[in-house]
Design goal:
heterodimer; A: 407 residues; mainly beta; Porin; 2 domains; 16-stranded antiparallel beta barrel; B: mainly alpha; Cytochrome Bc1 Complex, Chain D, domain 2; 57% helix; globular
Chain lengths: 407, 203
């Protein structure tokens, strides 16, 4: 009995030992595998950490580099003339910012002409110094702070129509840009907000045209940021706007200065002997006065805005282009409504432009429908009804298609 | 055997620690720029809703990265006539709303978002920027609470889930972030503000 009991316990012990051996071996194997995985993971973490540190350099520098801008392409179908595909504008905007102290801003504008040439222009180049919470000093070539359209609404992805209102484009009633220095900022007045911009600049220049090469008349105002002040007097101007409630902004603008004729069109060689480059003998510095007013009201899916600008050039008693004063005047009103829960938006715009040249005067009514693929990518279809002088381009109705993308 | 088991558990512990270090090293290294100073999230959302739409279609926070929003906002400060403080506020709002996983940014923002308070206070601090004081929506695409067949026709259960986890309405330029971007709101706050919205704007 003792022997059999001993034998049984021995067998049991051998069996238990035999069973335990694979378990121990399995545990050692799992441990080794896990240790190997940890080593690999630690190596990966170390490598990843190094990469992340490098990537973080881009997230945490004192200088930020940023590019924005917009571009548009389209199709124009005039009532009198050939239909054409067009590339409107490619306008990259570069930002170089040092902390919250200063920002260099620059916008280039690339356009393709009807002849297939590519034109490049410096739309603006400014150094913006944020001197306080309420003021920034802006030096360089800046978009004119007169009114709203030029400084805020002209980018094609912002403008709800495929064209600018007459008088607010180039050579119109509203100045495009200026070269000088500007101070602008915001003023909190309790529940009311206000913003301002004041500037001093070289001001615009004038060009004149002749049909018989003997008598000249003013053709237009070139208010596009000249790098010299040929009339010798700085233009002073600015805009003040008040927001009585957050959905309403009302602004008034003014500019005063001098401007002189620096270009005679139709390839006439100007009399410049003995004068600084760009000056024309006998041309005087004429008064240059601009006044403007603008408003916007938006609520929910609707926005209503309007703008008026009047530019007056004083008379000249001497010079090649001696003559009476001349006035360019334009206004527009625009209503936009986005259908609820949809990407469709309807727009109507009325504009009236008067210039010293009857052939340019136009009353324009425009109907448009936009599809917002996204909020920065918009497809626009508009019909432009122009009531101008019969036979002139200002009287030609147009249908316009445009794809505009803001980035 | 016990010893062997502890050896096995030790690597598992190491594995956990390694994973934690991995996450920590990632979040610590992706700290956003240390400028400008953090602003007020709630006011920033109001500045964003009140000003951007005045000139152009409103751009959703997720369209740009944190650093891009800094430069863009300084650019827009001059265009829209914002004060420096309003600019800092809107940057704080946009940076906190463009992703759910900016760890350090979220911490920074949480510190400046006030807690719920009464339901009316919660609405006015957290919801009003996008939904408006009249509940009709501050900009295109935001649901109109006053419509009979509008957002409030959904059940409390659905709406609480939408508020708690975030939701993008049809045609809206951005998704509502979880709890309207205010992580300090409790479940009770969410329920109370929904009751306030129903009582104030519902039919």
């Amino acid at each position: 009995m003792k022997l059999s009991c001993y034998m049984f316990r021995r067998k049991l012990l051998v069996s238990a030992f035999s069973l335990a051996l694979p378990t121990i071996a399995l545990a050692e194997s799992s441990n080794a595998n896990l240790q190997k995985q940890i080593d690999e993971l630690q190596n990966q973490v170390s490598a990843l950490n190094s990469e992340v540190q490098q990537a973080a350099e881009w997230k945490n520098p004192n200088t930020l580099v940023h590019m924005a801008g917009y571009a548009d392409v389209g199709f124009v179908s005039p009532e009198n003339g050939n239909d054409s595909f067009v590339v409107g504008t490619f306008a990259p905007i570069f930002h170089f910012q040092y902390r919250d102290v200063v920002m260099l801003e620059s916008e280039l504008e690339f356009e393709i002409t009807e002849d297939g040439e590519t034109e490049v222009a410096l739309e603006y180049l400014t150094i913006d110094w944020f001197v306080s919470d309420y003021a920034a000093v802006i030096a360089g070539k800046f978009l004119s702070p007169i009114g709203q359209f030029r400084q805020n609404l002209h980018p094609s992805w912002v403008n709800k129509m495929p064209s600018a209102p007459p008088g607010f484009g180039h050579d119109g009633a509203a100045p495009i840009s200026d070269l000088g220095v500007q101070v602008r900022g915001a003023i909190p007045l309790g529940s009311i907000r206000a913003n301002y911009a004041v500037y001093a600049s070289n001001g615009p220049e004038l060009n004149s045209v002749t049909e018989d090469e003997t008598e000249f008349e003013l053709e237009g105002i070139r208010a596009e940021g000249f790098g010299a002040d040929r009339d010798g007097d700085k233009t002073i101007g600015g805009r003040f706007a008040i927001l009585p409630v957050s959905s309403v902004e009302i602004g008034v603008s003014i500019a005063i200065g001098k401007a002189t004729v620096t270009e005679l069109e139709n390839e006439v060689e100007p009399p410049t002997a003995g004068l600084e480059p760009g000056l024309i003998a006998g041309e005087s510095a004429r008064d240059y006065d601009v006044i403007g007013a603008d408003f916007v009201w938006f609520t929910g899916n609707m926005s209503l805005r309007g703008e008026y600008v009047k530019t007056q050039i004083g008379e000249a008693t001497t010079g090649t282009t001696a003559g009476e004063s001349a006035t360019w005047e334009s206004l527009y009103a625009q209503l936009a409504y986005r259908l609820p829960k949809s990407k469709w938006e309807g727009v109507i715009r009325y504009a009236d432009f008067d210039s010293p040249h009857n052939s340019e005067d136009v009353t324009q009514t425009m109907l448009g429908i936009n599809y917002l693929v996204s909020n920065n990518f918009i497809a626009k279809l508009a019909y432009e009804s122009n009531d101008g002088t019969v036979g002139e381009p200002s009287d030609d109705d147009r249908t316009l298609l445009q794809l505009a993308y803001g980035f | 055997m016990k010893n062997k088991l502890s050896n096995i558990s030790n690597p598992l512990f190491k594995l956990s620690v390694t994973g934690f270090l991995l996450l920590f090293s990632y979040s610590a290294s992706t700290t956003a720029a240390d400028f400008p100073q953090a602003g007020n999230f709630s006011n920033g959302s109001k500045v964003w809703a009140d000003n951007c739409n005045r000139c152009h279609n409103i751009r959703g926070p997720k369209e740009l990265r944190d650093d891009q929003w800094i430069s863009t906002s300084f650019h827009m400060r001059l265009r829209a006539g914002l004060t420096g403080q309003e600019t800092r506020d809107v940057i704080t709002f946009l940076q906190a709303s463009n992703t759910k996983t900016v760890a350090s940014g979220a911490t920074q923002v949480a510190a400046v978002i006030s807690k719920g308070g009464t339901a009316k206070e919660t609405y006015e601090k957290t919801c009003i920027a996008c939904h408006g004081s009249d509940g009709k929506g501050a900009f295109p695409g935001t649901p109109d609470f006053t419509l009979k067949e509008g957002a409030l026709s959904k059940s409390d259960e659905v709406l609480i889930e939408n508020i708690s986890n975030g939701f993008q309405s049809e045609g809206s330029p951005m998704a509502m972030p979880p709890k309207g971007g205010n992580p300090n709101l409790s479940e009770t706050d969410v329920g109370n503000v929904l009751s306030y919205i129903r009582k104030t704007f519902g039919n």
